[in-house]
Amino acid sequence: MKRLNFILPTLEDKKKLMDYKREFIENNDSMDGTAGLGSAETFEEWYSAFCDNSKEETVRDSLVPATTYMAVSVSDGHLIGMIDIRHRLNDYLLNFGGHIGYSVRKSERRQGYATEMLGLALKECVKLGIKKVLITCNKNNIGSAKTIVNNNGILENEVDEGNRITQRYWVYL
């Protein structure tokens, strides 16, 4: 049973997104897959960058075009998580970041949402023509590793980033 829908953020989603950001800040969590929401000074600044980075013609320097979705509950529209699908890889993403980044708010974790989100994102990758998808996670993030493996991820290797070990998984579509 499908529990989540992917929705592109709009200006009307400001309250939902800022509440999402607040929960991550309160829990001192990493906001992966949010197109930089965690570091944006204002929602408007974030939304402008989100729009720019969605297209090859306007993507900002050193970044790649990406589609960032809100994963919302089918039943009530509650924002469960966010996921970022990068349309191509640069050197950094090839080594450490991958095609997909995602996060689930702490209050909604351990319910299978990340696995469902990643499965939906892989379907979007097919639409984008991405047949070999790289997904990475911190070696200490066992939940994320399980999410990737549950979506047919195959561990290629581990890369030492100095302060952490990044695991690199491939999913063949």
From TrEMBL:
InterPro entries: Acyl_CoA_acyltransferase, GNAT_dom. GO terms for molecular function: acyltransferase activity, transferring groups other than amino-acyl groups. Residues 4-173 form the N-acetyltransferase domain. It holds the Pfam family Acetyltransf_3. PROSITE patterns: GNAT (PS51186). It comes from the Bacteria. PANTHER family: ACETYLTRANSFERASE. This is GNAT family N-acetyltransferase. It comes from Clostridium beijerinckii (Clostridium MP).
